[in-house]
């Protein structure tokens, strides 16, 4: 069996390269996805995950994450504010409790009891971006924050020209979950995802990433899939579960992703700022990635090295 790690986005190499030696030496896929996620979460330069993640509309960073190897082996954590490594916490929930998901204060107390280190998650640069957004979304560096709109606080809706605000904010990119799938020498697969969610979200919002079946789904008998992008779209079609179920019925990873993206296209009135991408591995080790729109890239690491590549399939032209 040839081991490999497949990660969303071009920030994948920092995590893949840290996790690959252990995986290639015979380590488990579960350890590989946990280790890769931890390195990416701890990197303050990555502003969509862990330390340095962009905050919600009130300026608070809240993190979500999940880990999974089978329907009977998954864990998730949502809405944590003081702990930078949701994937490790999710794994501890999976391994040490009878539950699957912990959220908010209870999840934080669990993390504290388990000895996880409490840290300030809001970096100076993310605070800076948030302050600019609060003052005027148009001042954000549009080249950097491309392709997404900041959600508008429900409290602020009155008197605001929502349509105008959407148009002004269209160019902002404020999302990017790290989702990681790996296959080990024994042929086992595992997945993890970790995110600070949609930037400037309405406080309390939880996306697809910590919901098993939405942002992540793994079943050794059928395959693994994980998502990034507009969580509200992914959640409405049970995105990752759907990709895996299609593979269970015989679809290749590429076909399963394509059909799921087409389902999104059929079931939503898509707007320009919507983006969704999936990565997937079948039970026999075939893999693919695909995105709704151009702009998504994946990182693949195998024994030949690490490459950042375009997805195998993009549904829409722009
Ligand atoms: N899917 C994540 C969420 O909606 C964000 C992202 O991947 O960009 O929370």
Structure description:
This protein has one domain: (Glycosyl)asparaginase (Glutamine Phosphoribosylpyrophosphate, subunit 1, domain 1, 4-Layer Sandwich), CATH 3.60.20.30. Helix content is 31%, strand content 23%. The protein has helices at residues 12-24, 29-41, 86-96, 104-113, 124-135, 162-169, 231-236, 239-248, 253-267; strands at residues 4-8, 63-70, 73-80, 101-103, 178-183, 189-195, 216-219, 223-229, 276-282, 287-291, 298-302, 305-309, 313-314. An 8-stranded mixed sheet has the order 4-3-2-6-5-1-11-12. The chain has a 5-stranded mixed sheet with strand order 7-8-9-10-13. The longest helix has 15 residues, at 253-267. The N and C termini lie far apart (37 Å). Residues 175-177, 195, 197-198, 207-209, 215, 228-229, 231 line the site of aspartic acid.
Give the topology:
Layout: E1 4-8, H1 12-24, H2 29-41, E2 63-70, E3 73-80, H3 86-96, E4 101-103, H4 104-113, H5 124-135, H6 162-169, E5 178-183, E6 189-195, E7 216-219, E8 223-229, H7 231-236, H8 239-248, H9 253-267, E9 276-282, E10 287-291, E11 298-302, E12 305-309, E13 313-314
Parallel strand pairs: 3-4, 10-13
Antiparallel strand pairs: 1-5, 1-11, 2-3, 2-6, 5-6, 7-8, 8-9, 9-10, 11-12
Helix pairs in contact: 1-2, 2-3, 8-9
The structure holds aspartic acid.
């Amino acid at each position: 069996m040839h081991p490999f790690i497949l990660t969303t986005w071009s920030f994948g190499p920092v995590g893949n390269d840290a996790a690959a030696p252990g995986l290639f030496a015979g380590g488990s896929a579960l350890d590989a996805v946990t280790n890769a996620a931890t390195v990416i979460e701890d990197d303050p330069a990555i502003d969509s995950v862990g330390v340095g993640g962009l905050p919600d509309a009130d300026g608070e960073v809240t993190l979500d994450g999940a880990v999974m190897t089978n329907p009977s082996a998954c864990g998730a954590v949502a809405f944590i504010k003081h702990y930078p490594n949701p994937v490790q916490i999710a794994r501890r929930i999976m391994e040490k409790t009878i539950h699957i998901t912990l959220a908010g204060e209870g999840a934080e107390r669990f993390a504290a009891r388990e000895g996880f280190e409490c840290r300030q998650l809001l970096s100076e640069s993310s605070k800076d971006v948030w302050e600019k957004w609060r003052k005027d979304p148009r001042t954000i560096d549009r080249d950097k924050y491309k392709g997404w709109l900041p959600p508008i606080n429900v409290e602020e809706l009155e008197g605001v020209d929502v349509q105008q605000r959407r148009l002004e904010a269209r160019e902002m990119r404020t999302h990017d979950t790290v989702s990681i799938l790996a296959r080990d020498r024994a042929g086992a697969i595992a997945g993890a995802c970790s995110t600070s969610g949609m930037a400037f979200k309405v406080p309390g919002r939880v996306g697809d990433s910590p919901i098993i079946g939405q942002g992540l789904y793994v079943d050794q008998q059928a395959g693994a899939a994980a998502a990034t992008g507009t969580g509200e779209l992914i959640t409405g079609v049970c995105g990752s579960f759907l990709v895996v179920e299609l593979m269970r019925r015989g679809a290749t990873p590429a076909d399963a992703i394509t059909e799921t993206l087409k389902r999104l296209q059929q079931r939503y009135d898509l707007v320009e700022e919507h983006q969704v991408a999936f990565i997937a591995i079948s039970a026999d080790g075939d893999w693919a990635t695909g995105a709704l729109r151009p702009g998504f890239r994946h990182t693949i690491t195998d024994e030949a090295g690490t490459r950042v590549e375009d997805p195998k399939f993009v549904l829409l032209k722009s």
